[in-house]
C-alpha cells in the first residue's frame, strides 16, 4: 500500500487535524512525504515543501515552514494537507 499511497493515490480529509500531528512543525510534515515517497534528502524536501506551500497560497512560506499547526487557521491547515497531497 505504501507504493500506492503518495505515488498514485492521495486523499485530503475534511478535518486536517485527523491527519496532521500538532507536535511536528509544518515543514517537517510536508517534507516527510517527500522523503518517504520521492527519496529526497532533508534539504531538497524543505525546498520542495516551501514551493508547495507557495503553490497552495500559504503566505510567507519560508517562515511558515518552521511553525507549529496551532499557529495556522483551519483553512491554512487544509492548505497544508493539500500541499502534502500534491507533494507526491
Summarize, please.
The chain is an all-alpha fold and 88 residues long. 51% of the residues lie in helices and 0% in strands.
List the helices and strands and how they pair.
Layout lengths: L25 H13 L3 H14 L5 H4 L9 H14 L1
Helix pairs in contact: 1-2, 1-4, 2-4
Q: How is this structure best described in words?
A:
There is one protein chain. By secondary structure, the chain is mostly helical. It has one domain. α1 runs parallel beside α4. The longest helix is centred in the middle third of the chain and has 14 residues. It is globular and about 30 Å long. The two termini are 14 Å apart. The mean pLDDT is 88.
Name its key features.
single chain, 88 residues, mainly alpha, 4 helices, 51% helix, 0% strand, globular
How many angstroms separate the termini?
14 Å
**Biggest beta-sheet profile:** none
Q: What order do the helices and strands follow?
A: HHHH
Tell the overall outline.
globular
Report the sheet-strand fraction: under 5%
Amino acid at each position: 500500500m505504501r507504493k500506492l499511497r503518495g505515488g498514485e493515490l492521495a486523499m485530503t480529509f475534511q478535518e486536517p487535524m485527523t491527519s496532521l500531528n500538532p507536535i511536528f512543525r509544518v515543514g517537517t510534515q510536508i517534507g516527510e512525504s517527500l522523503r518517504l515517497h520521492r527519496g529526497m534528502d532533508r534539504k531538497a524536501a524543505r525546498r520542495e515543501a516551501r514551493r508547495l506551500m507557495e503553490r497552495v497560497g500559504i503566505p510567507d512560506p519560508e517562515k511558515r515552514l518552521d511553525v507549529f499547526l496551532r499557529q495556522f487557521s483551519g483553512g491554512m491547515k487544509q492548505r497544508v494537507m493539500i500541499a502534502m497531497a500534491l507533494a507526491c
